C-alpha cells in the first residue's frame, strides 16, 4: 500500500503568493514559538472501527499559551481519522498536514490539508480552525461569520458564483458547517471559501461524487463580505494580513456582560422548536423514512418543505456515499438524520466482529458531510439481538424501531399506506416509511393532510420519544428476532 504523505511533509512550499483564490499562508513549517505534533495509526486508538493496514501520517501545530487550541486540533484530527476509517470504502491511506494562515491580535488560524486514498481513488480536503486568545476558545470556520443568516447569505453568493461551473451541482451547496469547513482570507483581505475535492460534484447514479474537478473556491471581495463577519472574523482578517506572524497571545479576557454568541453557524437543530409531546395536549407524530437517500428523496423533501413538515431520515451507507448532497439538504432543512446501518442486511445474523463497521459507517459518513453526530440507530428490518444492542450502546446511540408499520414495503397502493397509518395512529407514534417506494411518495401528501386535520404535530423521532437515551431500545420490549 502507498503511504500518502501530508502536504506539510512535502517540502513545505507556501502556496499564497497573491493568487486571489488562495488563502494567505504565513508559515507551513515549525519555527521558534511553537511546536508540532506528529503521529501515525498507532496513535489513534479507541475508535469503533480500526481496519488493519491503513497508513496514517498526521501533523498539526502546537502553540505556547494556546493549550485549548492544541486540544481542539487534537480532537478534530482524531475525529477525521475515526471518520475516514469508518466512513470510506476500503481506506488505504490518510495524510494530514497544516499551514498557519493567521497570527495576530490574539487570533490564530490553522488550515488542515487532508490527502486521502480509498477504493474510489485519491482526493484532497481542506478545513480551517481558529483560536481566539481573548476568549480562550477554538472556533470552526463558520464562526468567522456573524450567524446562520450570514452563512445562508454566503451560501447564496457561492451558488451564484458557481452557477456556470459545469463541474458543480448548485444543489450540493447548503449552509451547513462541513460544507463551509474552510474559510479564510487572501493577501488582499478578501474572503475565500474553499470546497474539498468532489464536495460539490454532480450526482452520478451508483457512484460517489467525482473528485477529479479538484478544489473549488469562491472569493468574496471584502466590501461584500464585511457585513457577514463576526467580531472574530474581522480580527481574523487582520491576523491573516500581517507582515510577520505574531505569536504573542494575550490572556483570556473575562467579560461577564458579553452576550451568548448563540449556536455555531451551520449547526442545525432538527425538529420544531418549543414542541412538548408530553404536555398532555399536543398530539405528536414522527414520520420516519428508511433506505435513502435515493433519486426520489429530493422530491420528498420538496413535499415536506411545502407542507412545513419535519421528518426523520434513517440512511444506509451506499446511498449516503453516492448522494451526500441530498443528506446535506435534509440536515440543512431541519430534518433529523439517523443511521439505518451500512449495508441493508440482518445484523442479528452477523458475527459480533462485523457489527462495529456496520454500526459506525453511516455515523462517520454523515459527520464527514455535515459535522452532525448521529445518535439514533435503526437496524435494517428492525432485526436485532443482544450483540446489536451492545454495539449500538458502545457507539453511544439509542436503538430505534417503530410503533406503526405502514407496510409500504409490501408493494401496496398509496391509499392502503395511508389507511394503514391512520387506522393505527396514536399520539407519540413513530411511523415506518421508505422513500425508495413510489407509492410512499404518492401517499405522503394525503397522509400529511389527514394527520393535520386531526391536529397532529409533526416532530422528529427524538421529540416523539421524549429524548431517547443511548443504550436503550425503543419502543420498550422490542423483540426484533427474525
SSE blueprint:
Blueprint: E1 34-40, E2 55-63, H1 67-87, E3 93-104, E4 107-118, E5 121-132, E6 137-140, H2 148-161, E7 183-185, E8 191-195, E9 216-220, H3 222-225, H4 231-240, E10 283-292, H5 297-307, E11 312-315, H6 317-322, H7 324-332, E12 336-339, H8 355-370, E13 376-377, H9 386-394, E14 398-400, E15 404-405, H10 414-422, E16 429-434, H11 438-453, E17 456-458, H12 461-464, E18 473-474
Parallel strand pairs: 2-3, 10-11, 10-16, 10-17, 11-12, 13-14, 14-18, 15-16
Antiparallel strand pairs: 1-2, 3-4, 4-5, 5-6, 7-8, 8-9
Helix pairs in contact: 1-8, 5-11, 7-8, 10-11
Class per helix and strand makeup: alpha/beta
Q: So how many helices?
A: 12
The amount of beta strand, in percent, is: 15-25%
Overall helicity: 25-40%
- Biggest sheet strand line-up: 1-2-3-4-5-6
Distance between the termini: 41 Å
Mean pLDDT: 94
- Any low-confidence stretches, pLDDT <50, length ≥5? 1-16
Which series of helices and strands comes N to C?
Answer: EEHEEEEHEEEHHEHEHHEHEHEEHEHEHE
Biggest sheet statistics: 6 strands, mixed
Q: How many runs of DSSP E, i.e. beta strands?
A: 18
**Tell me, what's the shape?**
globular
State Rg: 23 Å
Amino acid at each position: 500500500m502507498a503511504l500518502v504523505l501530508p502536504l506539510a511533509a512535502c517540502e513545505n512550499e507556501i502556496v499564497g503568493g497573491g493568487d486571489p483564490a488562495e488563502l494567505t499562508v504565513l508559515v507551513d513549517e515549525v519555527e521558534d514559538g511553537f511546536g508540532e505534533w506528529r503521529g501515525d495509526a498507532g496513535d489513534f486508538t479507541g475508535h469503533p472501527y480500526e481496519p488493519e493496514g491503513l497508513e496514517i501520517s498526521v501533523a498539526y501545530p502546537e502553540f505556547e499559551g494556546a493549550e485549548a487550541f492544541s486540544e481542539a486540533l487534537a480532537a478534530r484530527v482524531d475525529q477525521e481519522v475515526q471518520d475516514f476509517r469508518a466512513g470510506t470504502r476500503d481506506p488505504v491511506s490518510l495524510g494530514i498536514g497544516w499551514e498557519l494562515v493567521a497570527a495576530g491580535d490574539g487570533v490564530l488560524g490553522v488550515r488542515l490539508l487532508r490527502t486521502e486514498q480509498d477504493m474510489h481513488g485519491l482526493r484532497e480536503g481542506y478545513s480551517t480552525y481558529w483560536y481566539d486568545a481573548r476568549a480562550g476558545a477554538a472556533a470552526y470556520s463558520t464562526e468567522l461569520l456573524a450567524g446562520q443568516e450570514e452563512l445562508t447569505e454566503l451560501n447564496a453568493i457561492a451558488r451564484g458564483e458557481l452557477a456556470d461551473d459545469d463541474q458543480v451541482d448548485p444543489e450540493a451547496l447548503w449552509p451547513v458547517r462541513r460544507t463551509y469547513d474552510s474559510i479564510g482570507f487572501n493577501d488582499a483581505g478578501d474572503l475565500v471559501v474553499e470546497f474539498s475535492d468532489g464536495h460539490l460534484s454532480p450526482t452520478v447514479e451508483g457512484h460517489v461524487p467525482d473528485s477529479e474537478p479538484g478544489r473549488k473556491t469562491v472569493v468574496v471581495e471584502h466590501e461584500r463580505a464585511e457585513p457577514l463577519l463576526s467580531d472574530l472574523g474581522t480580527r481574523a482578517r487582520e491576523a491573516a494580513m500581517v507582515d510577520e506572524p505574531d505569536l504573542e497571545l494575550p490572556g483570556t479576557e473575562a467579560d461577564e456582560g458579553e452576550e451568548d454568541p448563540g449556536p455555531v453557524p451551520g449547526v442545525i437543530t432538527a425538529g420544531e422548536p418549543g414542541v412538548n409531546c408530553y404536555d398532555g395536549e399536543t398530539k405528536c407524530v414522527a414520520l420516519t423514512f428508511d433506505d435513502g437517500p435515493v433519486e426520489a428523496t429530493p422530491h420528498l423533501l420538496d413535499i415536506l418543505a411545502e407542507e412545513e413538515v419535519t421528518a426523520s431520515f434513517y440512511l444506509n451507507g451506499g446511498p449516503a456515499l453516492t448522494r451526500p448532497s441530498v443528506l446535506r439538504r435534509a440536515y440543512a432543512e431541519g430534518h433529523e438524520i439517523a443511521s439505518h446501518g451500512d449495508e441493508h442486511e440482518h445484523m442479528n445474523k452477523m458475527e459480533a466482529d462485523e457489527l462495529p463497521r456496520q454500526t459506525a459507517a453511516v455515523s462517520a459518513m454523515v459527520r464527514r458531510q455535515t459535522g452532525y453526530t448521529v445518535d439514533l440507530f435503526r437496524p435494517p428490518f428492525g432485526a436485532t439481538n443482544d450483540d446489536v444492542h451492545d454495539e449500538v450502546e458502545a457507539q453511544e446511540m439509542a436503538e430505534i424501531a417503530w410503533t406503526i408499520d405502514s407496510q409500504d414495503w409490501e408493494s401496496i397502493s398509496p391509499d392502503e399506506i395511508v389507511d394503514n397509518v391512520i387506522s393505527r395512529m396514536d399520539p407519540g407514534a413513530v411511523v415506518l416509511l421508505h422513500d425508495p417506494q413510489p407509492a410512499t411518495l404518492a401517499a405522503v401528501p394525503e397522509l400529511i393532510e389527514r394527520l393535520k386535520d386531526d391536529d397532529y404535530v409533526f416532530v422528529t423521532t427524538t421529540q416523539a420519544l421524549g429524548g431517547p437515551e443511548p443504550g436503550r431500545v425503543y419502543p420498550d420490549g422490542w423483540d426484533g428476532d427474525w
